[in-house]
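Please describe our next protein:
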Amino acid sequence: MHTPPPQFSAASPAPGVRTIALMQPVHWLVLAWRDLLRCGWISLAHGLLLALFGAALLVAAHNRFWLLAGAFSGFLVVAPVLATSLYALSRALERGEQADARVVLKTWLNWQNNNFNKWGNDYWCLVQFGALLALAGTGWVLTSAALITLLAPVPINTPVDFIRHVVLARNGFLFELWLALGGVLAAPIFASSVITIPLLLDRRLTLLRAVLTSWRAVLANPLPMAFWAALIMGLTLLGLGSALLGLTVVIPLLGHASWHAYRDLVDASALPPRELLDQEAS
């Protein structure tokens, strides 16, 4: 017989937010590298799958660069959701548990398998957030495509066209406008997602509270989080610039580091663990 798990409410304690040193993101990468080495092939498989997905995008849109640029940008928007099982692997290592394929399968296939109310918002919080990020990514794809198509002096069909007529254009500010618009759209998405999914994976709380906690963490640490955003962008560009091969390492590295970012930035000990309540519901 199933009994409902203890309920949380808006009156539940809010997660605490810590302040960190400017260079703390470098420490997250160091810890992430250790996690990657300990997890081995299972971490690298995540990076390889996403690199193959990026290659598929490249093949599908190689002669429509406006679509390719927007698609890759949108891909980066939803990357935090795709890295969910990497957070779970780092959590397993932190707990002294086995970090293997079973953790990945449990994360994706048995999410809250014993949850009492499968129609409640709490059960679907990760799905809801993933859908919101996908919507944001789609919006950026359309916006990027429209901007480049309407304002470029000639049709932009290849990366060479983009570099010649947008990046290196002597007249006009299309490239600067494209970057600025991307930054304006990316900043709130980053602030909304930087620790949201690890927090939802680890603790039971509403999606809104998780997003607000992510914003509080960013606002409490503007310089370290700007540095972290720059590291994410720099490493991602390095992965993309290596014919996508570097993504095999970059993706799991950033995924594991995001778990450590959550653990440093947020004190969620006052909130009920998600897995524990799921077990109690069985």
Summary: Confidence is low (pLDDT under 50) at residues 1-6, 114-120, 276-282. The chain is about 70% helix and 0% strand.
